[in-house]
Amino acid sequence: MHSCTNLPYQTKQFSFQDFELQYLFHYQESTEKYRPLLIVADGSEHGVLKDLPQEIADQKPMILFLPFTKTYLKQHGLDSDSYTFRKEPVKPVAALLKLIDSVLQEYPIDFERIYLCGSASGGIVCWELMRRRIGLFAAALMIGTKTDLTDWNPNAATAIRLYHGVDDTEYPIDCSRRLYLSLMDVYCDVKLHEFPGTGAEALHYLFHDPKLFQWLFSVRQKVFTSMPIPENMSVVELDAFGFTAKILPEAGGNIFSLQHKATGTQLLREPHRKEELFHTPERFGIPPLFPPNRIEDGAFLFEGKICHLPINQKVQNLHLHGIAISKPWLLVKQAKHFAELKFVFNETSPEYEGFPFTCEIIRRYELTEQGLKDTAIIRNTGTCNMPLGFGYHTAFPAEGATVRVGAADHKFEINKTSFLPTGRCLEWSEFHPGTPFIPFGTVVDFHCRTGVLKQDDGTEFQGAELVYPQGTLRYITDEKFGFWYTWNAGGLNDFICLEPVSWMSNALNLPLPASRSGVRKLAAGEEISFVNLLEFTADH
Q1: CA 538, CA 540: separation in Å to the nearest integer?
Q2: 291 preceded by cis ω (within 30°)?
Q3: How far apart are CA 425 and CA 432, in angstroms?
Q4: What is the largest CA-CA distance in the chain?
Q5: Statement: residue 175 has pLDDT above 90
Q6: What whole-number percentage of the chain has pLDDT above 70?
Q7: Rounded distance, CA 308 to CA 250, Å?
């Protein structure tokens, strides 16, 4: 047996929507600035998973321990024999999701080191969490669990280890085998460990193996930027015309908060902590895409030059989201209602060798009586033409929203493995985004040309409309943004990203004329501007 320690736990409960979630909580003071978080869903019936190897306890993780017995889960519709995934989470899962959000906001958690462990029936809860919070968890241990998720494409960077006893009669190993095979097609880091001659009870003691946790706590969620996160970050705050805004120059100059004061409406999705703007910048505010979307193999040919951008999506071997999204921007001007920032790309930039063009981008945020005016000016400061593609990965709150997106009468076919357009156009099948739809529970991942939306007064605008209980938000986009890319991580998370972009995904590698792909050339000394508006009308 390995040396284990009896950790001190506090018995707690968390209330959400008339449901009381009982759990055990372990937290020790530490000199570390940020701490790993381990969420344990123990279905072993006897709390085997409460104790940790001494070597791991010494790292002082924060632990949420949840005794999810088979009987308890059956009462709430999560019995492994009849489990089916539902659009709305059952009460224990809904409460646990809110509890996790609360912990992330209140405690100094390292967002790169959030982990799951599930045993037996508790594994279903872990799968629910992974499916409803794609990209949050760095790694997950599944010990003798049973569930079929063969229809699930996680498309996220969670490392999964499946451990199963071959002689397990309550949760047969065939389940883990099927799950492993289905995840192999879409996952870069999943392994199945089989234990002959072992059933459920003996396998639970794997949890006491230090090597298991040495691996677990060594895994870090992939951070978008390889640059160190600044120690001291200064948030720029605007307050005028009944709106407030917050901007973080160090994180791509991103405006990560916009609120309507009278109704308290959050008009952009906001992070729990500023550090999230470096870990997953595409999920908050209006981060810049320069150049936008995906570039196959990170390479393209432009006017005889072979250009390379860093591969930051290794599974598909792509460059994603450009070179400005998480870089520091310089605050140039600021007033109560106004801020101007600048991003400079030149010979000293680390990507210059593969992207040999110099330029600067001016970003101007201005609060107005309607909301926000967002202006970007891109200037070619070099001596030759440069390829010009630009966009925003705008993230909106999805909770309570009904959405319309002005779109063309067709969408682009996307390869399911590379996530790149094939060049073919398809008719809308599941839904047309110009018709009101509820993003929660709807998979939104289309790529298309922009179109216009008609309003009740007969006027039209290019952009999108989000109707919330407190009022209506119109996202009016510049006509030079000729394309949409959209994403909501499978439709079970609390956001929807509506991304206006000036060219198609992988535009520089497509055998299409510029008039169709959206590729522009910006001559030496030339500049181009993009102006978007966010206009909110409160319901009275």
Answers
A1: 6
A2: yes
A3: 14
A4: 75
A5: no
A6: 90
A7: 25
